[in-house]
C-alpha cells in the first residue's frame, strides 16, 4: 500500500475534475466528456438540486434579433450581438474585458439553442433595466437543472460525486496535479488526481447574512484559486438585489417583490412616503439597474429614513385593486398567480391593496472573481474557471439575465480548452506532504473539546461583512473590517466541534468554509478601500462620484510571498469608451 493510500480514504484518478455541477459545471462536463476518457464532477450538494442556477427565477440573455429569428419570440430586429455588447460595457461601467464580452454576446444564441434542442422549455421574452432591447428569454432555474441533469446522466464517462466539498487544489511544479476533498455524508478524505481542474463554484454571497443564494455559495473556488496563485479581478463589486423580503425570517432574501417590480409599476418609499429613487435615477426610477436601486435603499436606511426592520418599503397601493389582482395572470409561469417556489405568496405577504412590503437589498451575485482569458485559463497550468465567480465579463455591474448566459457560454469553453490541455500534458505527481498538511488542517477541529464555535464564527464574519463591507462602504468602516478580519483569522486555529461524528456534521462543514469566507471578505474589503470612487455595485460614501478620468481601472488581487497583494491596471478600451468626466453616481452618460 502506497503512502498516499494510507493518507486518503479514497483515491480517484480522472482526466478532468469539475468543481460545481450546475449551470457552468454541467456544461463544462458535457463538453469535456466529448474528448476525455473520464470526467469527475464534484458538488457540495445534489446534482440538479443545489447551487445558484437552481434558484434562478430567471431569464437568459441573447440579443433580441436572435430571440426572434431562432425562437420565434417577439424580439426587436434592430438589436444585434454588437449592441448587446455595448450595453454590457455601459452598464458594467467600462471595466469589462471587451474581447470576452464580444465572445459572450456572439455565442449566446447558439448555446441557448442547444439547451432548447435538449428539451428546455422557454417562456416569455422580457425587457430588463440596462438593456436597450428585450433580451431575457425566460427559463426558470428548475428547467436548467432538469435538462442539464438529464444530459449529464446520459454520459457514461462522467462520474458524479455528490455531497463532496473540494477544499484544496494540489500542484506539481506550479501545475495542477489534483485536489483534496471531504465527502460530507461520511467524513471520508478524498484525493482526486486530475490533469486539469475547472472551477465552477459560483460566488461568495453567503459571506453576507442577507442573501438570495443557497448555503453552498461560500467562495470556495475563489479562495482555492487565490491560495494557489491565480489572480482575481473586480472583487470590490459584489452585487446586491433590491426589494427582497425581510420578514418572516424564513423568507429573508426571497426576491418575489423584486420580480413584482419588473412586471408591475411599484413605488419604492422611505419612512416619509417619498419615492427616493427620484434622487438617484429620475428617469428610470424603480426601473433603474439593481446596483443603483440597492445603494439608494441602503443610503435611506443609513440616513434614518428606513423602515422599522432596517429596510425600505415597496408599494403597489397606488394601483387600482382589480389591476393588482389581475396582474398576476400574466406574470411568467414561474411566478404566475402569486405562486413562487411552490408556495402561495399571499399567505406570507401583507394585503398589497392596503399595505407596503418591507424590503431590503440582499447579496445576489458575484461580478468579480477569478481572472480568465478567452480560453478560461487562470494563469495556473491546468486550472480553468467558468461561470459566476470569474471576473472581467461583467465589470462593475451585471445586467439582468446575464448570469445564466455566462454559465452556458463559458462552461462549454472551459470544457473544450481543458480537454485540449490534457492531451498536451503528462501526469503530475501528488505531493504527499501537502496532502498530509491539508488533512491535518481539515480534521483538526475534532482534536479539541473546547475553543471557538464554528457556527458562531460564521455569524460574526457575516456581521462584519454586512456592517462594514455591505451595500454602502467608507474608509473608516473598511479599515475596521480589516482589523476584525485579522482577529477572526487568528481564531481559526482554535475552532472545535462538539459533535465528534464525521457524518454530515454541520459544525465541521462550517469550519471548513470559514477560511474561504474570510479570504473572500478580505479581498472585497481591500479592493473597496483602494478604489476611491463609486462605480457600479460599489458605493463609497466618502467618494460618491464616478470618476472616469482616474478610475477606469481594474484592481487585481493575488497572493505574493504569503500576503494579499493588490495592483491597479488600466482597462483596455477597444471599442466602447466612457466620457472622461467625473459625474454623479447612478446618472448614466
Polypeptide structure, described:
There is one protein chain. The protein is α/β, with parallel strands linked by helices. It is 33% helix and 21% strand. The protein has 16 helices and 27 strands. The strands form eight sheets. Strands 1, 2, 6, 7, 8, 9 and 18 form a seven-stranded mixed sheet that branches. Strand 8 (175-183) and strand 9 (188-199) form a beta hairpin. Helix 8 (220-227) crosses helix 16. The longest helix has 25 residues, at 506-530. It is globular and about 75 Å long.
Notable characteristics:
589 residues; single chain; alpha/beta; five-stranded mixed sheet; seven-stranded mixed sheet; 16 helices
How is the secondary structure organized here?
Layout: H1 3-7, E1 10-19, H2 23-32, E2 39-42, H3 51-54, E3 59-61, H4 64-71, H5 81-91, H6 98-117, E4 125-126, E5 136-138, H7 141-152, E6 158-161, E7 164-172, E8 175-183, E9 188-199, H8 220-227, E10 232-233, E11 238-245, H9 256-263, E12 267-269, H10 290-302, E13 312-315, H11 321-327, E14 339-340, E15 343-344, E16 357-366, E17 369-371, E18 383-385, E19 390-391, H12 402-422, H13 432-443, E20 452-453, H14 454-468, E21 472-473, H15 475-490, E22 495-496, H16 506-530, E23 539-540, E24 545-547, E25 553-560, E26 563-570, E27 582-584
Number of helices: 16
Tell me the major beta sheet: 7 strands, mixed
Shape: globular
Q: Provide the helix percentage.
A: 25-40%
**Total count of strands:** 27
Mean pLDDT: 94
Question: Cα distance, first to last residue?
Answer: 67 Å
- Structural class computed from helices and strand pairing: alpha/beta
Fraction of residues in β-strands: 15-25%
Radius of gyration: 23 Å
Poorly predicted regions: none
Quaternary status: single chain
Amino acid at each position: 500500500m502506497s503512502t498516499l493510500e494510507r493518507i486518503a480514504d479514497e483515491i480517484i484518478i480522472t482526466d478532468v475534475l469539475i468543481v460545481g455541477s450546475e449551470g457552468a459545471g454541467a456544461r463544462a462536463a458535457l463538453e469535456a466528456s466529448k474528448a476525455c476518457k473520464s470526467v469527475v464532477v464534484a458538488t457540495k450538494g445534489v446534482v440538479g438540486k443545489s447551487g445558484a442556477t437552481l434558484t434562478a427565477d430567471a431569464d437568459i440573455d441573447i440579443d433580441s434579433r436572435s430571440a426572434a429569428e431562432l425562437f420565434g419570440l417577439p424580439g426587436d430586429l434592430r438589436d444585434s450581438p454588437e449592441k448587446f455588447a455595448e450595453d454590457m460595457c455601459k452598464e458594467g461601467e467600462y471595466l469589462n474585458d471587451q474581447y470576452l464580452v464580444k465572445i459572450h454576446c456572439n455565442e449566446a444564441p447558439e448555446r441557448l439553442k442547444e439547451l432548447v434542442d435538449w428539451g428546455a422549455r422557454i417562456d416569455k421574452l422580457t425587457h430588463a433595466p440596462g438593456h436597450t432591447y428585450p433580451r431575457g428569454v425566460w427559463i426558470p432555474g428548475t428547467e436548467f437543472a432538469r435538462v442539464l441533469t438529464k444530459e449529464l446522466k446520459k454520459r457514461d464517462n462522467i462520474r458524479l460525486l455528490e455531497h463532496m466539498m473540494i477544499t484544496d487544489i494540489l500542484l506539481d511544479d506550479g501545475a495542477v496535479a489534483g485536489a483534496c476533498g471531504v465527502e460530507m455524508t461520511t467524513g471520508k478524505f478524498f484525493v482526486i488526481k486530475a490533469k486539469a481542474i475547472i472551477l465552477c463554484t459560483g460566488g461568495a454571497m453567503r459571506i453576507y447574512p442577507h442573501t438570495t443564494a443557497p448555503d453552498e455559495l461560500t467562495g470556495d473556488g475563489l479562495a482555492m484559486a487565490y491560495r494557489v496563485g491565480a489572480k482575481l479581478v473586480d472583487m470590490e463589486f459584489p452585487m446586491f438585489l433590491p426589494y427582497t423580503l425581510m420578514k418572516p425570517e424564513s423568507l429573508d432574501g426571497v426576491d418575489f417583490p423584486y420580480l413584482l417590480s419588473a412586471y408591475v409599476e411599484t413605488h419604492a418609499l422611505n419612512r416619509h412616503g417619498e419615492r427616493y429613487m427620484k434622487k438617484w435615477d429620475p428617469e428610470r426610477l424603480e426601473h433603474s439597474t439593481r446596483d443603483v436601486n440597492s445603494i439608494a435603499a441602503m443610503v435611506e436606511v443609513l440616513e434614518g429614513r428606513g423602515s422599522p426592520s432596517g429596510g425600505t418599503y415597496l408599494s403597489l397601493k397606488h394601483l387600482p385593486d382589480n389591476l393588482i389582482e389581475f396582474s398576476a395572470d400574466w406574470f411568467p409561469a414561474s411566478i404566475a398567480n402569486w405562486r413562487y417556489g411552490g408556495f402561495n405568496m399571499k399567505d406570507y405577504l401583507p394585503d398589497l391593496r392596503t399595505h407596503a412590503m418591507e424590503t431590503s437589498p440582499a447579496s445576489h451575485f458575484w461580478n468579480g472573481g477569478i481572472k480568465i482569458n478567452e480560453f478560461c485559463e487562470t494563469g495556473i497550468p491546468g486550472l480553468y474557471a467558468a461561470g459566476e465567480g470569474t471576473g472581467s465579463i461583467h465589470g462593475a455591474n451585471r445586467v439582468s439575465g446575464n448570469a445564466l448566459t455566462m454559465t452556458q457560454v463559458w462552461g462549454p469553453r472551459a470544457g473544450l480548452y481543458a480537454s485540449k490541455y490534457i492531451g498536451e500534458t503528462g501526469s503530475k505527481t501528488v505531493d504527499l506532504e501537502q496532502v498530509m498538511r491539508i488533512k491535518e488542517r481539515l480534521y483538526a477541529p475534532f482534536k479539541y473539546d473546547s475553543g471557538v464555535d464554528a457556527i458562531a464564527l460564521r455569524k460574526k464574519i457575516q456581521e462584519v461583512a454586512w456592517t462594514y463591507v455591505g451595500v454602502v462602504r467608507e474608509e473608516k468602516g473598511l479599515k475596521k473590517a480589516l482589523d476584525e478580519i485579522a482577529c477572526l483569522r487568528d481564531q481559526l486555529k482554535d475552532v472545535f466541534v462538539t459533535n465528534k461524528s464525521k457524518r454530515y456534521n454541520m459544525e465541521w462543514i462550517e469550519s471548513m468554509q470559514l477560511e474561504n469566507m474570510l479570504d473572500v471578505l478580505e479581498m472585497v474589503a481591500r479592493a473597496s478601500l483602494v478604489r476611491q470612487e463609486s462605480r457600479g455595485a460599489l458605493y463609497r460614501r466618502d467618494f460618491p462620484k464616478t470618476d472616469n478620468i482616474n478610475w477606469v481601472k481594474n484592481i487585481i488581487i493575488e497572493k505574493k510571498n504569503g500576503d494579499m497583494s493588490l495592483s491597479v491596471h488600466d482597462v483596455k478600451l477597444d471599442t466602447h469608451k466612457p466620457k472622461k468626466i467625473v459625474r454623479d453616481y447612478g446618472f448614466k452618460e
